[in-house]
Amino acid sequence: MTVTPGQFIQAAAPLILNEPIPMRLFRISQTTNPGYDTYDSAVVCAPDEETARNINPFNGKPMDWTSANFDLWCLIPGDVIVEEIGAAFEGIKQGVVCASFNAG
To answer: Which of 48, 60, 78, 88 is within CB 3.0–4.6 Å of 23 for a Cys-Cys bond?
Structure first.
């Protein structure tokens, strides 16, 4: 089949991109809830800053800000400080890499 400039062709099947989303490493921290039995920071793997901000340092799942245990972390997403560290190795899944818990 020869295609000339400006000619459109229809694909026989929809194009599906199976490329993994590049993951990044972020340090998340908070200073509004200091003291014993709290998390002060964690290193997390996420595709972007907003996703990193919403990772729960306790279990690595998305934070539910409406029913979260605020004794362990901060109250609102705006209190989470996010710093990008760099690229994650291929195959690293989204979640907590390590966390800092101040046991009392």
So the answer is: 88
